[in-house]
Specification:
Elements: H1 11-32, E1 109-113, E2 117-119, E3 129-130, E4 134-137, E5 142-150, E6 156-164, E7 174-181, E8 187-198
Antiparallel strand pairs: 1-8, 2-8, 3-7, 4-7, 5-8, 6-7
Length: about 220
Amino acid sequence: MNWLPKRRPSPALIISLIALFVALGGTGYAAVHLGKNTVGTRQLKKNAVTSAKVKNGSLTGADIRAGSIKGTSLNLGALGTVPAATNATNAVNAANAGTAAVSNSIASVIYVAGNAVTAPHSTGPDPFDESDQSNATCPAGTVVIGAGSVSGSSGIEVSEESITSSTPGGPPDTVRVYFDNFRTDDVDNNFAEAVCAVVHSPNDQIPPPVIAPAKKSGSRR
């Protein structure tokens, strides 16, 4: 059997192998160990930075462009109640609104129609006859803040309208109306109307005025 003669590698081959190893090792080094400040926006792919790559608590308001976050970007249902606005929940009824002082005494306004009465035609020497009484009474806890009436036809007018209480000594909660008839036929569907409002406390009611007794007139000298 013939053996190949043993030959030492030439210096050129040794240098080539060393250069190859250095080149391969240098490429691996560059791929794993990047120099400081060597990666910029051009080296990053689009959408390459994800939430998992961002350190929690590292971003600040300065990192977000002003006006870039809109209401549509937020989950408004997860915001809850603003701590500094704990009284804003009651602002629906303007309970704490300084500019809405009137709402402290008036919470709501409703209209109440009284019972319908017939204004009869004239049957006597007087040119008109008066109807029965129509009462429009506000619900419990409300008082009259306005009064009116509705007539069923022309030729009917109010002969008497008053605001009174449905209970002795109670608040003014009832509008009472009588109707006159100047026609020659009966007219139905006439009724009083009351404008009612909720009163939060008796202190909100204005007491009736005190009428001073009339002074006796003396004889002139």
